[in-house]
Amino acid sequence: MVTDMRSQIATTLTELFERDDRLAIVLAEISTDLFRRARRHDPARAVNVGIMEATMVGVAAGFAMEGFHPVAHTIGPFMAERPFEQLKLDFGYQALEGTFVSVGGSYDYGAEGGTHHAPGDVGVMATIPGMEIFAPGTAAEADRLVRAVYANGRASYLRGSVAQNDAPFDVAPGHLRVVRDGPDGAPTIVAFGPMLSRTLAAAEGLDVTVAYTASVVPFDADGLAAIVGDHPHVIAIEPWYEGSVTAALAAALAHVPNRVAAIGMPRRFLRSYGTAAEHDRDLGLDAEGIGRRLRRMLDGRAA
Q: What pLDDT is recorded for position 56?
């Protein structure tokens, strides 16, 4: 049975919570059932503030100022967008430590409408100086990243999703790895988080190198530069708004002439309702759709 990211994150945090009396968990009504054991263990450190996301971040900041390792959790739009000012000022401006864990990806709650969509979360979080951003591709990777960042002295955003890759990798902050070698000088595809398996399927038969990372910020600039060589052509496959990571890729390749493009969610509101898989198909973000766009890009045609 495949463990979903949300359950794994709660299990990992509960284990750490019981072992580390400096870890505090702050919830805003979401996933309270998954953290029931932690709340019973120490209700002073595992707090549900109700449907008040700004308060959730403010309480987490209070924990941080008292020397705790706070973790705040809710779904994507309520974690990255509603309390953005508190994230920016309470944690970014004051350089406080905190881990912010979301679930829901871009449109995992596709049947709930626009209020529950969060394709802009990575772009929003990236505007906060010092904020780290991670997108695990499997539940096992989420476990590894939670353990790596929850008490690292910095502010970190960890983005969970329903979609998962077929197999986990030994991910780490700031690490990019090649998962499929192409010919010398071939274009490089960089898949982020849960986009890897569908990217590998989409690239079948193409002369490309495929690299993978679950670390958006910090991004492995040196690793990318070493992979692509002197005439880089890089295409990012991302599960959030298209183009959210292209500035980081271009900066990594600024020392040489380069071509950088992206395939991700179109920058428009979704006005239809459906499952995440249905939205993937409609937006061209399933393996078939990504394959079509890759072939057009590599042929030099408009994507």
A: 98
| Stretch among 68-72, 110-114, 191-195 having the lowest mean pLDDT | 110-114
Domain presence at residue 172: no
Residues 23 and 153 occupy one common structural domain: yes
- Structural domain boundaries, residue 145: 5-159
Which residues, other chains included, contact 189 with Cβ-Cβ below 8 Å and sequence gap of 6+? 199, 203, 208, 209, 210, 211, 234, 235, 236, 237, 294
Domain ends where: 159, 193, 212? 159
User: Does a structural domain hold residue 168?
Assistant: no
Q: Are 120 and 216 in the same domain? A: no
Question: What is d(CA 15, CA 92) in angstroms, rounded to the nearest whole number?
Answer: 27
Residue 241 has pLDDT above 80, yes or no: yes
| Whether residue 302 has pLDDT greater than 80 | no
Q: From CA 188, how far away is CA 207, in angstroms rounded?
A: 9
Q: Which amino acid is at 272?
A: S
Q: How confident is the model at residue 303 (pLDDT cuts 50, 70, 90)?
A: low
CB atoms within 10 A of CB 136: 28
Contacts of 161 by beta carbon, 8 Å cutoff, 6+ apart: 5, 103, 104, 105, 106, 108, 135, 193, 194, 239
**Is the distance from CB of 51 to CB of 80 less than 8 angstroms?**
no
- Which residues partner with 103 through β-bridges? 75
Instruction: Give the integer Cα–Cα distance in Å for 229 and 112.
Output: 45
Pairing outcome for strands 155-159 and 98-103: parallel
Which residues are 91's β-sheet partners? none
| Neighbour tally for 195: CB within 10 Å | 28
The beta-strand segments (E) located in the chain are 23-27, 46-48, 69-75, 98-103, 132-134, 155-159, 177-180, 188-192, 209-213, 215-217, 233-241, 259-265
Same domain, 117 and 240: no
On whether residue 171 sits in a domain, the answer given is no
271, 166 in Cβ contact below 8 A? no
Cα(47)–Cα(56) distance, integer angstroms: 9
